[in-house]
Amino acid sequence: MPRRLLDTARSVPAWLAFVATLAAAPALADAERAQGERLFRAQCVGCHSLVPGEHLAGPSLHGLIGRPAGSVEDFDYSPALREAELTWTAETLDAFLAGPDAFLPGTRMVFWGLDERPRRRIIHFLESRATEASDH
């Protein structure tokens, strides 16, 4: 077999695997989002709502991504959160959900923290909610 044809034949399986990964990406993202939503319902809804202005033991998480910490006016935050100079991003939320009191001592959030995979899934779900809200 000519060398060029042999090189092409070797690269076809790799290319097909790459194309299959791209085709599967939306389905994987949807599955991650669905798992994040389930985890959110299991871990977070006892204290947090996603409805704007609907606060429970914790503030509404509607519009959380991109919002400065402690900034919802009609919620009584701990001084630690009111005075924190941070914006909720995937990175800050990841660090906070790993261990709220370790990340921000003095927070009132009574929560031990989550392992990395559940954290990432919940954050992905919250990010998708932010994207959905901005699409409307």
Give a verbal description of the structure:
This protein is an all-alpha fold and 136 residues long. The chain has one domain (30-135): Cytochrome c-like domain (Cytochrome Bc1 Complex, Chain D, domain 2, Orthogonal Bundle). The protein is 58% helix and 0% strand. The chain is built from five helices and no strands. It has helices spanning 3-43, 79-83, 90-98, 100-103, 116-135. Helix 1 packs across helix 5 and helix 3 (90-98) packs antiparallel against helix 5 (116-135). The longest helix is centred in the first third of the chain and has 41 residues, at 3-43. The radius of gyration is 21 Å and the shape is globular. The mean pLDDT is 83. Residues 31-130 form the Cytochrome c domain. Residues 1-29 form the signal peptide. This is C-type cytochrome. Keywords: Electron transport, Heme, Iron, Metal-binding, Signal, Transport.
List the helices and strands and how they pair.
Blueprint: H1 3-43, H2 79-83, H3 90-98, H4 100-103, H5 116-135
Mean pLDDT: 83
Query: Which shape, going by the Cα principal axes?
Result: globular
> What is the CATH homology-level superfamily?
Cytochrome c-like domain
Oligomer: single chain
**Low-confidence region ranges:** none
- Helix-strand pattern: HHHHH
The CATH class assignment is Mainly Alpha
The amount of helix comes to 55-70%
Radius of gyration: 21 Å
Number of H- or I-type helical stretches: 5
Name of the CATH architecture: Orthogonal Bundle
Percentage beta strand:
under 5%
